[in-house]
Amino acid sequence: MTDLADLRARLERARPELLARDAQQFSRQLARADKARFDSARFLRDLAAGLARRSARDALRPATIRYPAELPVSQAREELLAAIRDHQVLIVCGETGSGKTTQLPKLCLELGRGSRGLIGHTQPRRLAARSVATRIAKELDTPIGELVGFETRFDRRVSEKSLVKLMTDGILLAELQSDRDLFAYDTIIIDEAHERSLNIDFLLGWLKRLLPRRPDLKVIVTSATLDPERLSRHFNDAPIFTVEGRAYPVTLRYQPESEEAETEDAVADAIDQLWKGRPDGDVLVFLPGEREIHDLSRSLAGRFPRAQVLPLYSRLPAAQQDRVFSTGGPPRIVLSTNVAETSVTVPGIRYVVDTGTARMSRWSTRLGIQQLHIEAVSQAAANQRAGRCGRVGPGTCVRLYAADEFASRPLFTDPEVLRANLAGVILQMATLGLGDVEEFPWLDSPDSRQVSEGYRLLQTLGALDDERALTKLGREIARLPLDPRVARIALAGRDTNCARESWVLAAALSVQDPHENPPESLPQARQKHAEWSHPRSDFLTLLQLWNRWQEWGENASNRQLRKLCKDHYVSYLRMEEWESVYRQIADLLGEREDRKAVVASTPEAIEKLYVPLHQALLAGLVDHLGLKLPEKAEYQGPRGRRFKIFPGSKLAKKAPQWLMCAAIVHTSQIFARTVAAIEPEWLTVVAPHLVKRVAQQPEWNIQRGEVSCTEHFSIFGMPLMKQLRHYGTIDPAGARSIFLLDALVRGEITNKPTFLQQNLKLADDVREKEARLRRPDLLADEPTLAAFYDQRLPADVFTVAALKRWLHTPGQNRANALRMREADVLRSGADADIASQFPDHLDLAGHRLRLSYAHDPGTDADGVSFHVPIALLYALPAERFDWLVPGLLPARIEGLIRTLPQPLRRHCVPAADYAMALANSLSPEAGELLPAICTRFHAMTGVSLSPGDFAPAKLDAHLQPRLVLEDERGRKLAEDKSLAALQGSQTGAARAALASSAVQDEASRRWVREKVLDWDFGDLPDSVQLPTRAQAYPALQVRDGHVALALLESREAAAKSHVQGVRALLLARLGDRMRDLARTAKAKLGLSQIGLALSPDALALSIAARAALRAWPLAQIRTQAAFQDALQHRGEFGRLAAAMLEQVCEWLNAAAELRKRMRALGTAWPEARADLAEQLDTMLAAGFVDAIPEAQWPRIATYLKAASIRLDRLPNKPQRDLELTAQIKPWISKLPRPLHPARWVLEEWRVALFAQELRAEGAPSATRVRDALTA
């Protein structure tokens, strides 16, 4: 057996002749070796095999390597070979076209590199990796994939024979997970480092750490414009080798735009000037974005009709991109974004017009969104643009900005590490165990806010925990060569049973949108795209496009498939790229059959998948949410950001309440792209670790029999939903406290247990005693009562169901433990004896009224309430209620004393003593309370008081009577402090109650009749007693135009109603006399009474009613004999009516004559005419016959005569009339109604002012009018 030390020595001697990967593997074997059991012979055989593999690789190296003589790198071959050989790290700077990209791998081969491992050569883009590999393979005369291979995300052509491997920088990054020290390589070339992408910067930092562990590894970094000194310092002062380019001289012109000029005009003017000198050169114009390209292309096409205007940007369909590579024909104007700076070389360019701007992608750490703002490009980028016109000959670059502005710009473009979301890099570093991101050796250290934002996103996705440690899910995400969001979606699909569909959409989000929307064919493109669009989800639009692509591919040839894509405005290349990414995801996550890309394809199947698929998408896009703002087309997103749906989305016109989106991008506005409608409830399932739950408003729920709360769900500060939840599962102790208080102490339980009914009855009895005694200190407080139950119930009883289970435990009578005694509900030391001074009923007028008490200061219900049945509303003496009850009488009298004026109140000091003495010496039998107090007080003190000295309305509510009117079922109808007020407001209800009671009593029913045509019901008694023991008063009544017989609630109401009813019945029986009176009225009035408010028939009826009052003692007619006797005296009635008609006709004719004279005045003296018109219109208004008091009846003719005299005098003394009118006018507006008693004082005043000779009655004046108004 060979000793382990000897084996180690042999390995060290053989190490330079081994592949680096093999040497590392052998070292690990020896490090883990157990001396007793290690198979030395096998190790030596493996070592020999390793040496053979190295020899085999040496044999693959080409015998001769040729270099194109025209390349500057070829001319510096010897110096470069020496520099690479002598240094571990070399910085190579060379202008575009120097040949460094294609020749450096060949120089490494010439030096023997590639023998111990691959020569790895990274490129920023897939296309470059493939095309450079193809070029090098061609120069080495070897098929692609053998000596020279390449690998991109979608293609791998590398074999065991490969010595040189071209790849994207992302591929090399991915390999770090399985080969941290890059033992598969002996040389690494990082090309195009000036682009400073995130991947490039990460690789540069990684290599800095790696080189001390891999002294055998060579690193070459190439750049066109990168600051070489800075890169040299990064690699410990590595040497810099500069290679001159092949470019022709470029003339720079600075031609800044004026403030007034448009960019379109400035570009056109610049092209115009360039072509004046040499019209055969093509022009490359650098613009910031696609929109600017489309706007300018239309303008330039019109100004330069002979030129070919070509757009160039990354989203442009491949066929249109290819047009820029075709030279010849008319002069070309290529309008490009910064894609033409380094990514694409446009042939034949002699002129460059540089607007100096580009759309730059920056991640906003504040808003958490990608911003695409137009910014000024750096000096390095501007020089790169200028160099594009020096490839085929001397060129000219016109910069549309000033030279001093160029000088003030930053030297280099900000690296992506300072502009991007770092989540992907942080995840890679966590997977590789590289420690803190901020301690990593970056060329430019990212801002701490960027780092925090990256960590936040990974924690949101569940890739890192709260301590920033990698989770199991994080390792799975890191395993996929996808953006962390997209990888999360791909993984989530497995959990929601839509794996393949989620992989399809994850792949779609990893490539550019395959939909093409050329400006010149936009309507046609949208029409075609509508064939697979989905109304609620742009993601399902993509899925349905995928299904269409699969259908096309089943039977179509490759050529036909390309044509179908073109006809439907879909990018064939992007669809292929999409499918390639899908297969890669399926290979990593699924079984082999999953690569067949079979997904839900029917509308029904897709709709069935809507919820699970969008929940899978939400897992990766959980912070790309939006809640629609009310009455706006905007959405509120996490962290206060607001955005709109991108106009190109199907959902832009019918915005959902909630949405998620693939990206939120800030261009001209903040837009959500690739949008779908979602339900907020999904987030509680998809991201429970992010959803915050707050329980609010815990309260007893009597229906559920438990304490319920409203649980509010929110995410990122956005309200999601709320739901009712059992509070006991959140806070059992809090729920129990509420249960004890509301359910048991307050008794809010349906189907109350017997013990609880008894306990609540005990508490109610004590409350009743408190209200009567106005002592709120008898009942124990609620915490004390709750403590009673708390001491007797287990801690887990806080619902009705739990209480019932505990009560019904077999073999135990637990309810007895919960029964309270009076001592349990009384406050400690309380005396519950009730005084006889607070009765629960009052016997009054032969009836028993229920009394209730409330101790509720500040409310109308405070004090004692008298419950009055409506049937007794008019049967009770009002004065009794002022006495309240004996227990409150002293306090009421004391309160009344305190309302006395000070001079009187001083005779009653101390008031409480006087009140008690008065209360002890008075009783309700004395009648009204206030007169009784006055009489007794005078007897006690000799001081005279009057009831008007007191102010009962000022007393507190509990010292005033509260009368509650109730119907026959005891339901409250109304309440007031005055019985008279209730009688006035509840007349209708009282009459209805009386009628209802009378109908139920046969003896009373005879006095209720709906229509009476003659006195055929016998003699009317003064009153009748109803079954309710209430008194009712029979009377005739006019109701709805006919006479009825009714029982009324009071003697007064019955008397008033009976007069009107008897009169109506008499007039109905005197039909012949009424007809004669109407004919006479028509004959006397005719059509002459213009403006008369009454018709002759109505006037006759009013006069007859007035005459009836004079002719008969209507109130005394209560028997059939009296009624018949009145009919016998109809002659007297006829004479009275005729005389009254004659008198009224004289008034009306006089008024008509006055109006005629007033019209003859025209517009003269308007004040006088207005006053006269008001006088006539009011005095003889509709109903004047009934309204004019009997005392004023003889004076109406005088008032009209005075008005006539006034008109006679008006032309001679208009000023005098105006002055007199001014005295009257203010009082007219103060009349509360037209024929108020003050009206007749006013009319007498008019007589005194305008016709003194007619002698006014009562010495009228303004003072008399005022007195009449206040009477």
UniProtKB/TrEMBL annotation:
Helicase ATP-binding domain residues: 81-244
CDD domains (UniProt xref): SF2_C_RHA
Residue ranges annotated for the Helicase C-terminal domain, each copy included: 270-433
This protein's UniProt keywords: ATP-binding, Helicase, Hydrolase, Nucleotide-binding
GO MF annotations, alphabetized: ATP binding; hydrolase activity; RNA binding; RNA helicase activity
Domain of life of the organism encoding this protein: Bacteria
InterPro entries to which the protein is assigned, alphabetical: AAA+_ATPase (IPR003593), DEAD-box_helicase_OB_fold (IPR011709), DEAD/DEAH_box_helicase_dom (IPR011545), HA2_WH (IPR048333), Helicase-assoc_dom (IPR007502), Helicase_ATP-bd (IPR014001), Helicase_C-like (IPR001650), HrpA_C (IPR024590)
SUPFAM superfamilies hit by this protein: P-loop containing nucleoside triphosphate hydrolases
UniProt name for this protein: ATP-dependent helicase HrpA
Organism field: Panacagrimonas perspica
